[in-house]
Amino acid sequence: MTVRFLDLGRQYISIKAEIDAAIAAVIRDTAFISGDYVSRFEREFAGYLGAGHCIACGNGTDAIEIALEALALPPDSEVIVPANTFIASAEAVTRAGHRVVFCDCDPADYTISVPSLRAKLTAKTRAVIAVHLYGQPCDMTALIEAVRDTGLKIIEDCAQAHGATWSGRMVGTIGDVGTFSFYPGKNLGAYGDAGAITTSDPVLAKRMRMIANHGRVGKYEHDFEGRNSRMDGIQGAVLSAKLPHLGAWIARRREIAAVYAAGLEGVGDLILPQRRDGVRHVFHLFVIRTRHRDPLRDFLTKRGIETGIHYPRALPKLAAYAYCRQAEESFIANRIDDELLSLPIGDHMTIDDAEEVVAACRQFYRTADR
C-alpha cells in the first residue's frame, strides 16, 4: 500500500531499543503478571493524566464493566450509551447486570447528544457512559449540567482519546470514573490486550482494584468474589516505554488532520470533522462523511490508500439490541452509518502521505457525476 491506515511495525522500529529493553527486563525479572512494571505504569499514567488513582486491568471492556460493578448501581439499572460507538461501551452494561438505553449522537461531531440524553432520562437511569469518540471529548460541560441534580454516575469511555482535554482537563479525570483501552491500534497501544481505570475516589479505586484481582486483599484472602483482569508485565513495560512518546505522536496526528482539513474543505459533498471549542482533539480517527462513501473507498483502495469504517452499523441496528431497535429508528446515528469513512491517520504518516490522500480525494470528486 502507498498509505497504510495503521503501521505498528514502523512505530516499533522507531523506538525499537526502548521496547526491546523493556520486554527483556520483564523476562529477566520474571514479572509476568501485575508486579513492578505494571505498578510503574499505573503511577506514570496517573501522573500524565493528573488522576488520583489508576488501576490497570486486562482490557478496555473489562475496565467499563469493573467500573459499573464497583459503582454498585441497583440491579437492572438503566445506563445511557451513545448509539454511535463500539459495542464494548454497551455490552459492558448488559454484562454488569444492567439495561442499555441508547441516546443519539451529535450531528456535528458524532459524540453523545446531550439533548437526546436528557430525553432518555427516567427514574431508573443510574449512569451515563460518555464516549470521547474518534479522539474528541464529548461536551462534558453540557453533560454534567444535564445530570447535575440526578445523582447519575458519569463513566468516561476514553478508549479513543488518550491525551485529549476538555477545558484544560484530561479526559478520564472529569467524571466519576475514566476507562481506557490500550488495544494495539490505540494512540497509546500495548502489544496485546490491556486496559486501565482512573478515579479520584480512593474507596472506589480500592474496590475496583480488588474486583480486577479476584476480590483479593492479600494472598489467599478474598473479601468477595471478583474476576481475573490483571495487566501482564510485558504490557505494562511496553506502555511505560511508549508513554513519553505519546505527546509527539498526538502532535503528528494533529498535523495530518490539519492537512486534511485545509485540503478537503469544500470538496464535493464531504463533511469534515468539527472540533469543539476548548478541547484538544487527539485524532485517533479522522472520520469524514459522504453519500459516496463506498465508491470513494474503492477509489482510494485502488490508489493504494487504506481506509476504515467506524462503525458500519449503529449499535441499535445490531441483533444484540433488537429489543430497543424500534424506539431508535429516528436517530441520526442510524441514518449516517453508511456515510462515515475513516481516512488514514497516525504517527507513521508523513505530510506527503496526507497530501497524497487529499489529492486522491480531490481527484475522485473531479469525476463528472460527483
Key descriptive features of the protein:
single chain; 370 residues; alpha/beta; 7-stranded mixed β-sheet; 13 helices; globular
Please identify the oligomeric state. single chain
> How many strands?
14
Count of discrete alpha- or pi-helical segments spanning 4 or more residues: 13
End-to-end C-alpha gap: 26 Å
Question: What is the radius of gyration computed over CA atoms, rounded to a whole number of angstroms?
Answer: 21 Å
General form: globular
Helix content: 25-40%
Proportion of residues in β-strands: 15-25%
* Order of secondary-structure elements: HHHEHEHEHEHEEEEEHEEHHEEHHEH
Report on this structure.
This protein is an alpha/beta fold and 370 residues long. 38% of the residues lie in helices and 15% in strands. It has 13 helices and 14 strands. The strands form four sheets. Strands 1-9-8-5-4-2-3 form a seven-stranded mixed β-sheet, with helices on both faces. A three-stranded antiparallel β-sheet has the order 7-6-12, with no helix packed on it. The longest helix has 19 residues. It is globular. The two termini are 26 Å apart. The mean pLDDT is 96.
Quick recap:
This protein has 370 residues and is α/β, with parallel strands linked by helices.
Topology:
Blueprint: H1 8-14, H2 16-29, H3 35-49, E1 53-57, H4 60-70, E2 78-82, H5 88-95, E3 99-103, H6 114-120, E4 125-131, H7 140-146, E5 153-157, E6 165-166, E7 169-170, E8 177-181, E9 195-199, H8 202-212, E10 216-218, E11 221-222, H9 233-242, H10 246-264, E12 279-280, E13 286-289, H11 293-302, H12 332-336, E14 340-343, H13 351-365
Parallel strand pairs: 2-3, 2-4, 4-5, 5-8
Antiparallel strand pairs: 1-9, 6-7, 6-12, 8-9, 10-11, 13-14
Helix pairs in contact: 2-9, 3-9, 4-5, 4-8, 10-13
